[in-house]
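Continuing the batch. This is chain 6 of the set; chains 1 through 5 are on the previous pages. Same settings as before, nothing changed between runs. Recording input and output for traceability.
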Amino acid sequence: MISAESLAIFILACLALCATPGPNVALIVGTSLKHGRKAGMLSALGVNVGIILQLAAVAAGLSWLVDLFARHFDVIRYLGAAYLIWLAVLQWRGAGKMGDKPMPTRRASFGRGFAVAFANPKTLLFHAAFLPQFVTNTADPGPQIALLAAIFALIALVGDMIWAVVADRARAALAGRFTRIADRVSAGILAGGALVLLAAGRR
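Output for chain 6:
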């Protein structure tokens, strides 16, 4: 059984990780700034479904998937960065234009989040290295890793939803003549997420 002290340290580490902006947060914040809370939360949901699948792969001991991501590390992150840059360009070109283009569908908002979650190979590799550090039963680590994965997934989901809500409130504060500024800030955040992916190394 995981000790209370180890569990507390793990939760604090998860909180710190989820509070650190990265490509996932960039997408959620950028989407909320441009399209509002609902689209941002759907993107957050897509991101976290992707994260849950990654955590499930680690908990199930699917080392072949981890190896696959490791072998194609650069290809995956370059594709992810290109996708975020494409979204940033769309945001920039549509800055201040509310009626020209329709809001993204629920499926599109969710799909963007899911795609970006898998566009960062470092996330899966990190989970595979991070979770086992808190396992005390090395003979049968599966149940403890599953518990840690579930805790991380819950914290990540709540954290990302908070990012979406905060970004939506900023959008409301910048409504009206500042809409173009909000849209371009959104584009800049997405581009920043792409830069984070491009700068990501294996360590």
